[in-house]
Here is the input.
Amino acid sequence: MSRKPFPLAKVYTLIEPGPVVLLTTAQGERRNVMTLSWKTMLEFEPPLIGCVIGGQSYSRDLLMASKECVINIPTVDIAKKVVSVGNTTGARTDKFKRFGLTPLPARFVHAPLIDECYASLECRLADTRMVAKYGIFVLEVLQAWVDSAVKDPRTLHHRGYGRFMVAGETIKLRSRMK
Amino acid sequence: MSRKPFPLAKVYTLIEPGPVVLLTTAQGERRNVMTLSWKTMLEFEPPLIGCVIGGQSYSRDLLMASKECVINIPTVDIAKKVVSVGNTTGARTDKFKRFGLTPLPARFVHAPLIDECYASLECRLADTRMVAKYGIFVLEVLQAWVDSAVKDPRTLHHRGYGRFMVAGETIKLRSRMK
Here is the structure.
């Protein structure tokens, strides 16, 4: 894959359409990956993303401890892996090995990029004040990577109970919106 | 359209895939509609949705004053209207009349449903504590309506600068996830 740096000011174009993502974390020898759909852009630049991680989870513990993570965006090619990651806890299993996801070193954080994902956003935990009430982790994107060969990624969009809408055609309309 | 009540516990299946929405507000004789992409589910039931409305806007004023709104979900059939709404302020224009959107009375709130949208969620403003810092309005869905004839809605997903991904095929994978 031709993984290239991607402008921080355009990160919202990756997150705003609502794809399912794989969030990776690492702390010391421990690492994990979780499937996540509940997130929104909060600011264009520096890009801030609010990710909702409710309840107790291994990823949440690692994120709180390390204050870092990577948001990786998969496409339909690895849909089965995405669902398997979502169905499994990482507390006693290395999900990277079990489901054949290849961790790659990131630039600014210890959490790994996932080689099988077309985009990866290295993030630092910027605000935890909304965690207790809503499970919202505010993440600042420090570095974005995108496979520049992928123009219209066939991302996954969760419709519940294992049903996923796969990104279809792209249309262009005259807009003054960013 | 055969607009039917939709179970509150399944509202997340409408919002989670990340569609662009039209948010309507009303206060006294004033009403407005805005285009919005930055939002996330926060809780399954009662359904809570965090909508990001940054900066000053007419819709934000009406939402703060009335503490109510409706989240309407359009499909590609009215894509041009969706973009036009996003390009225009409602402070001096009735965008419903100007762009041919039909307001219908809601059940619990004064803000209108939009007849041209396949789904509408009547909401009350539940928490404003994250408005100052992040523009996050926490909305509780009181009543959901869906056109029961629409199975795989061709929703719009903003990729920036007037480019929209249109919802494609739906795939089903075995999942223990909700």
About this structure: Helices of chain A lie at 12-15, 58-66, 79-86, 95-99, 131-134. Chain A has one domain: 8-166. The longest strand of chain A covers residues 136-147.
